[in-house]
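Supplementary Text 2. Reproducibility record for the structural model of the 520-residue chain.

All settings were left at their defaults, and a single model was retained for analysis rather than an ensemble. We include the record here because the model underlies the residue-level annotations in Supplementary Table 4.
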Amino acid sequence: MPDAALFSLSDKTGAEHIARVLHERGTLIYATGGTRTYLEEHGIPARDVEDITGFPALFSGRVKTLHPKIFGAILYDRASAEHVAQIEQYAIANIWTVCVNLYPFEATVARPETTLDEAIEQIDIGGVSLLRAAAKNFAHVAVLTHPSQYADFLTELGSGALSAASRRKWAVAAFERTAEYDIAISHYLAAEGQVLPSDLPGALALTLPLAQRLRYGTNPQERAAFYLDRSDRLPEQLHGKALSYNNLLDLDATLRLLSRAPLGAQFGSQRERFVRAAVVKHTVPCGVAQRSSVAKAVFAALEADAVSAFGGIVAVDARIDCEAAQSLSKYFLEIVAAPAFDDDALDILRKKKNLRIMRFQPSLPDELARELRVRSALGGVLAENDDPQAPAETWTVVSKRQPTPQEWHDVAFAWDVVRHVKSNGIVIAKGGTTRGICAGQTNRVSAVQIAAHRAGDQAHGAACASDGFFPFADGLEAAAAAGCSAIIAPGGSVRDDEVIAAANRVGVSLIFSSYRYFLH
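Retained model, structure tokens:
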């Protein structure tokens, strides 16, 4: 039987070039319906796959290529006399090139108006089977899954033969694509049907496409890349140098600070009126503020710790205007991120050649807060998310002194920020602005002292939030000595009574939360 190639493409970009070269070399071209029409429109003779199978496309196109004569033509071992004899006995072709990409399931379900029935029809069966078959037999068959591979294929073909290394490389890409495809489908069906809403996945699959190769990792001697399963998740870069590994980590930390925790109605309605701006350095918040305008929020967040803001990343949850851009332009910053920018604000920021300007979807901070959070450990992966069956968070004033209305709002703001600070984390806040932040200390009293030192005189009358309980009274006493008048922390220490007694002794308000917010 003559040599043959099989084409079945949803993305037909460049297919005519590779098919023409194969045709000129004497290879028969077989193709499924739309692909065959496309090739013939470009002057390339192509035969329908039913010329091999003897069957037309069945069941509204659900079955086209699933046939022994097609899979035998791809899978037989050319080095096996038994296989070759069966090929001759059953008049099966020799398909040595398989050029297939899958139904656009991911693009289909990304459209909000897509129905479940429409999504189901975009689940490719024959295409996935063809890719797996060709990839399994990479010793004899070339499998191409994306137009970006065509140039290398044609170069090697022009040099005389396809290398074993290239066939193996394309096979790896095919298996990666089918794994990615199956995960996209399983995630969609689980979300659509609300499968096990209170459970973590029974098996965690992290097959993510390469989004971007990075210059290096955390340090120049390390290599790195960024993988992402949703292209719309990555903010759009409007200006500046390419993002680095550290930039991406810092950007993630900054955007999460814009997500508002689900606090009580007495806080929610008022704080939603405010614009929030956040400054992060090395994934640690160094200034967060909420104000009635974007310019005021940006200025307050930068001035909260102007020294640490140098070389940091700023994110805002509102459109950046000219006045805000002027404040930002006075600092050396790595990234400025916002959901939108006024044209004159962009003109100001673009004067800084290397400043990365990022535009993100307004929903992104809240999406990041809700997603499954994963990280590597011991060669495996840890995963967590918020438990929908957990009891609602409650706050209890355990001191004799009640917070004032302003202290309540400062407590709520500080508590909203401290959940994003690496443990042991302390946040001192006043007037909708962080005044002192300390992260990553190995004892809580030192964290309080460092945050208080950074706050200076601004600690007087401020709120202090601790992500974990005070194991001794000394942490609370240090906050009170710095001038903090309202303190929030989780309860649960065996010495809670001592901490409460200390609060009453020094005359501060103490609120216990039923939640803690360690960040490791």
